[in-house]
Amino acid sequence: MSALQNLQTLLRDLFQLDSADLDFGIYRLFRIKRDEIEVFLGEQLPRRVGEAFQAVADEERAALERDMAGLAARIRREVAEDALSERGEPQREHPAFQARLAKELLEAYEGKRRALEGMRASEAQQAEVFNHLYAFFSRYYESGDFIPRRRYGARKA
């Protein structure tokens, strides 16, 4: 079972959507809004998490592109105008890349370029978010009831 499915199962259990005998208080509202809750759990929650990851990825991509453009301009200005091709690929065999500063700039540029090429919100990152949400909601919920539990964190000095 995936992390998303675990979270959805826990939330369905938490909302007691399958309990017909609970027809009072908030549970009555949950039963009335059952279809909306199911749409949220099944469609909106995964879509919104995906959108949030995409927004973060877009921001990171824009920042990497700005950094790469700055490094490319610096390489062309400080190393050599033709040290990078028109497409932005470094000309490693260029004699100007033998200097230490040029090598450092080239390594930084290539690191940013690799990061940009490999950037995408992975399934593992999304699963980690769903696992954290599961842990949060399951922390105080057990067998159909909310239980206050004291949590102590590590003290940092």
Which keywords apply here?
mainly alpha, 64% helix, 157 residues, elongated, 2 strands, single chain
What class do helices, strands and sheet pairing give? mainly alpha
The count of domains is 1
Biggest β-sheet: strands ordered side by side in the sheet: 1-2
- C-alpha-based Rg, rounded: 26 Å
Counted beta strands: 2
Low-confidence stretches at least 5 residues in length (pLDDT < 50)? none
Mean pLDDT over all positions:
76
Most strands sheet: 2 strands, antiparallel
Q: What best-fitting shape do the alpha-carbon axes yield?
A: elongated
What are the secondary-structure elements, in order, as H or E?
HHHHHEE
Share in β-strands: under 5%
Helix percent band = 55-70%
Alpha carbon gap, first and last residue:
40 Å
What does this 3D model show about the protein?
This protein is mostly helical. It has one domain. 64% of the residues lie in helices and 3% in strands. The protein has five helices and two strands. The chain has helices at residues 3-15, 25-32, 34-78, 100-117, 123-139, and strands at residues 141-142, 145-146. Strands 1-2 form a two-stranded antiparallel ribbon. Strand 1 (141-142) and strand 2 (145-146) form a beta hairpin. Helix 1 runs antiparallel to helix 3, helix 1 runs parallel beside helix 5 (123-139) and helix 3 (34-78) packs antiparallel against helix 4. The model has no long low-confidence stretch (mean pLDDT 76).
